[in-house]
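Support request, priority: normal
Reporter: lab tech (M.K.)
Component: structure prediction queue

Hi team, I submitted a job for Alcohol dehydrogenase from Jiangella alba yesterday, and the status page still shows it as pending. I've pasted the exact input below so you can check whether something in the sequence is tripping the parser. The sequence length should be 347 residues. Please let me know if I need to resubmit or if it's stuck on your end.
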Amino acid sequence: MKALVYHGPGRRSWEDVPDPAVKSPDDAVVRVDCVTICGTDLHILKGDVATAEPGRVLGHEAVGTVEEVGSNVRTVAPGDRVLVSCISACGRCRYCREARYGQCLGGGGWILGHRIDGTQAERVRVPFADTSAYKLPADVSDEDAVLLADILPTSYEVGVLAAGVRPGDTVVVVGAGPVGLAAILTARLFSPAHVIAVDPAPGRRQAAAAVGADVLLDPDDDVLARVRDLTDGLGADVAVEAVGIPATFESCVELVRPGGHVANVGVHGSPATLHLETAWIRDLTITTGLVDTATTPVLLRMLAAGQLGVTGLVTHRFGLDEMQDAYDVFSRPADTGVLKVALFRGA
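Reply from support: The job had stalled in the queue. We restarted it manually and it finished. Here are the results:
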């Protein structure tokens, strides 16, 4: 089959690789019908993720059709259309029993496209298929469903839920890329008073408005002054960091009020400074995390019910064999205006 293979920092190729096969009784082999590219894939290609070794098939988000299952698999069967989650869960270890699947000790966690071959291919082996693949309702499209493989549960869990967003809050989302937009969309479920989007790209600020941001700021604006104007001089209740660079993390710490919460969602490839000399007295809570995807079933029900307005998050579409072109577009958002890409079998 064809697959997108990582060959070390800055090097990738769309090439022939062996077809996947069931290796464990808990596995499924899934034909990939729709796949996308994540910012984390770009981090791997930059060399930021040392645990991703050259030769790895990238990708951890897909919708597809089950072709084969191991003898222990009970919840999906050949012919089923499924969502392949970015997180695999053994379902038996201490962390899985706490629904912290991202920290799975039994061979799961974030492994697809990281420690084992991933989804940017014509087929993929899905470990722990009973707990890591989800049957899809017929009325949910592949394009919409693939957004639930990573960015929506990530933003919802690591951003909105971890930060405890409440009705009437002022929420600042720094970075209006796909993850930031998903954070805005899911924060709106809790009726905050304001959702402020901060991003240098006018197109991304417009996208933020479309999914629910009511205040749009360029980083060159006096963001701190604008936030304090909206909050009686205090600062935001919640700041969601959705970029993954030191400057945006440090900005989030500055933007929240005393007693506020910084939820770091971005993937960082270099150290950021925590200014404890000024922050220690402010009663701040700072959280980080890898998504667990424990909320995927809830989000899927909401999507099927029309309660998640994901239209517009996918801006560019390709055939699966146009993977290299899709990477080129996705890696240059300032030039291409891309948010999320979707690649389809046979498109």
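Residues 2-149+292-344 form a domain with the Quinone Oxidoreductase; Chain A, domain 1 fold (CATH 3.90.180.10). The chain has two domains: 2-149+292-344, 152-287. Let us know if anything else looks off. Ticket resolved.
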